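Narrative summary of target 7.
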Amino acid sequence: MTTNRTALVLGATGGVGGAITSVLLASGWSVRALVRDPAKAAAGWSGRGLAPAWIAGDAMTRADVVDAARGVDAIVHAVNPPGYQNWDRLVLPMMENTLAAARAAGGARIVLPGTIYNFDPARVPVVDADSPQMPRSRKGAIRVRLEQLLEAAAPAVPSLIVRAGDFFGPDAGSSWFAQALVTPGRPVRRLLNPANGPGHSWAYLPDLAQAIGRLMDAAERLDPVERVQFEGYVDVTGAGMVDALRAAIGRPVPVYGFPWWAMRLLSPLGGMPREMAEIAPYWRHPLRLDNRRLVTLIGTEPRTPLTAAVETTLAALGCLDAPVAGH
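Modeled conformation, tokenized:
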């Protein structure tokens, strides 16, 4: 168990940030969480066990981040703009605030949960630390820039980038799983499968958080800029996630394809259709994350059996049928 280490988590009320917070607390870290409304955050955390120290502030205000990070060993940068809006204006300034806070803390390591959107799946079917970054979307280009900022700050400010596929899990509300495959709060009556082919990569948040926690515990073994890949679940057929959903639901449900054609048709209007059209290739071309470096650092990658992970996710989203009385 880790002792006498302190982390600041930005984005602790989100899916991946909250999962990492829970893992760090269980591992003995002292955890601070910067949030706009500490009372609301504490109420939302109720029932999750150990809680972080909630600190009032805004990740978009540099002084707030610097003050919250005083004396920490690591800063988990798991924050996104409110409502995932204004990425082009807000994402890079938030990382610059985190970098300033890490420098002021004496070189705290920045931990960035990464994505696959830095890469072109048509040209890079297997991602490792040295894969060429050729993003297909605006958000992917911003992700590339985030990593460039971290690389430029090293070694004075070390970093850990953990790339993973599409998130799913109990608190991953802003995800393809929760926003396309199923409808939160409703029993599953149909499935909408975005996959247009085999090889899509998924990351179960509790497993990803466990891996990140173990990597943070192994800080002395990490490079100044450590890029690792979390393999997660690779849907080798394009129907693997749907099959796991059916098994977890326990009854037949119809499956429909995602209307990618409509996204392409509406993409000139901008907004969500354009963003979805930009990432369609990630559902059409196989892409696998090479986790050999991660395994070298922490051993076997955490991996909950897929059906169990899906069932836990569905239960948390309120998507399982209510049990029949007497059964």
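The longest strand covers residues 30-35.
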